[in-house]
Amino acid sequence: MENAKKHIMLVGKSQAGKTTLTQYLTNQQLFYHKTQTVQVVDGHYVDTPGEYLEQRGFYGALSVTASQVDVIALVQSAVEESTMFAPGFGSMFCGKFVIGIVTKIDLATEEQLKRATRYLTDAGAQTCYSVSSVTGQGMTEFNKWFENL
């Protein structure tokens, strides 16, 4: 029987690093492009537009999309001073496993990393991973977790 790899939905502000993360994880060339609609990448990663988080009117689209995945990943850039995730945000996904992914760690100070992780845990992330899609830092740990889901 084939090992059925899980599906993970990436939710975060515009320019948080969701698309770049999916490019890294699927061995694509890294290049910036604005995600306009929900995109399924490599059959397992669901990349959502930042506007789905930034505009409450799109929360319904997040909920509908979440029903089709196994894990919700809240994505927060380490160098972003603020967050769009309200405390308890992850609870809107009705019992789905919620993780946090801090991106752009190669550009951040230790204090910025701590702040981003706190934002994600406050939002309901049950565990957090810190990664850089440019240097690959933290990707081995994240991939190991994802492969063992």
From TrEMBL:
Organism in which the protein naturally occurs: Aminipila terrae
InterPro entries tied to this protein: EutP_PduV, P-loop_NTPase
Record's protein name: EutP/PduV family microcompartment system protein
Gene: eutP
GO BP: any one term: biogenic amine metabolic process
Pfam family, one: PduV-EutP
Lineage start: Bacteria, Bacillati, Bacillota, Clostridia, Peptostreptococcales
NCBIfam families: EutP
Homology family: Belongs to the EutP/PduV family.
SUPFAM superfamilies: P-loop containing nucleoside triphosphate hydrolases
Signal peptide region: none
GO MF, one example: ATP binding
Keywords: Nucleotide-binding
